[in-house]
Amino acid sequence: xxxxxxxxxxTREAMKERLSGIVPDFEIDMKAELVFEINRIxxxxxxxxxxxxxxxxxxxxxxxxxxxxxxxxxxxxxxxxRDPIVFCGVRFMAETAKILNPDKLVLLPAKKAGCSLAESxxxxxxxxxxxxxxxxxxxxxxxxxxxxKAETDVCCTSGNAAQIVNALDSDTVIFIxxxxxxxxxxxxxxxxxxxxxxxxxxxxxxxxLDYELIGWRGRxxxxxxxxxxxxxxxxxxxxxxxxxxxxxxxxEVVEASDFSGSTSRMISYVKQCTSKQILLLTxxxxxxxxxxxxxxxxxxxxxxxRCPHMNEITLEDTLNALRxxxxxxxxxxxxxxxxxxxxxxxxxxx
Length: 350
Ligand code: 13P
Ligand code: SF4
Known about the structure:
Blueprint: H1 8-19, H2 25-45, E1 48-52, H3 57-60, E2 66-68, H4 70-79, E3 85-88, H5 91-100, E4 106-107, H6 123-132, E5 138-141, H7 146-149, E6 154-156, H8 161-168, E7 173-176, H9 179-189, E8 193-194, E9 213-214, H10 228-237, E10 242-245, H11 251-256, E11 259-260, H12 263-272, E12 277-281, H13 284-293, E13 298-299, H14 315-324, H15 333-349
Parallel strand pairs: 1-2, 1-3, 3-4, 5-6, 5-7, 7-9, 8-9, 10-11, 10-12, 12-13
Helix pairs in contact: 1-2, 2-14, 4-5, 8-9
The structure holds 1,3-dihydroxyacetonephosphate and iron/sulfur cluster (SF4).
C-alpha cells in the first residue's frame, strides 16, 4: 500500500524497512525519489493508483492505493470517486477501469503492456463461435479487450470463473479464450470440454451438443511454461514444500500442486498456511512481494519467468503518467456500453 511520508528521507527509510532483503539498498536509494514524487503528485491531483499483484516490489509496496487481483481491482475501479485513475497493470485491466468510468481519465503508464491471452482472440472469432453455437452463453475471461467483451454475456476472472459457469445453469457454455483456465474450470465443475475448429471462421450448422464447455486455444505465455516436471523436481529437492499455482497453468500442473487460485487467493493462502517453505508457480515478482510481507516463510526462489507486459510498468513511467497524462485509455462508446454489461453481470454474480 502507498507510503504516506512527508519527506524524501522518510520515504527512503520506510522503503528500507518494508523491502529489506528483497530489494537491494542501492536500488532503494535510486527509486525513493521517484516514489516520493509519485505520491506527492498523486495527492496533489486527487488521483488513485491501482496496482496489480505482479508489479515489481519497489513499485508494488510503495505507490498503489489499492493492490489486488483482476477482480478486486475491477471492483475498486467501479467504486472509486477519484480521478485520474492510474492503472499499474496491463492494458486489458486499464480498459476495464475505463469501461466502468467513461467520464474519468484512465492512464496506463506504458504504451502497450499487452497480454498473450488478450491477443489470442478477436471479436470476429467470438461472433463466429456464437454463429456456430446459437443461444449458448458466452463467458469471457477478463484478460481480453473491450470489443471481445462486447460480444460476451458474462465476464469472469480466475477468482470467480467456476462460480460464474455454475451460476449460469446452462447445459453448455462457451468459455474463452484461455485453454488452460477452461480445462481447470471443467475439472472443478465436473464438465467436459471441446475445442472446436472453426471452418475459416464461417458459421457451420449446429451439431448435437454432447459436451458442456466450448473452449478456445489461447494461453498465458508465462503460465504455460510451468511443467509437472518442475513440480516433481521441486518436491525432490524440498520434500516439505507447499506448491501454489495460478489457474492459467495447465490442468496437469494445477492437479500436481497443493493449491491453485487467483493471485490474491495465493497471497491469502500463504498468509494462513503453516508450511515454512513455499513455491509459487506464477509471475516471479509476486514471490518477492509476498516474501516482504511474510518474513516467517521461506519463498523458494526457483522462479525465473516474468511477464514481459507487466514488466513494462516502471516507477519512471508511473511518474510520467501523472506528470504528462500518459497514456489515456479510450474505448469507443457503443463497444464500451456492451462490454460494461458483461462486467456488471460478473460483478453482480460474484
Ligand atoms: P489474477 O486475476 O489472478 O490477478 O490474474 C491476472 C493475470 O493476468 C494472471 O496472469
Ligand atoms: Fe497476460 Fe500471462 Fe502476463 Fe497475466 S501473466 S498479463 S495472463 S501474459
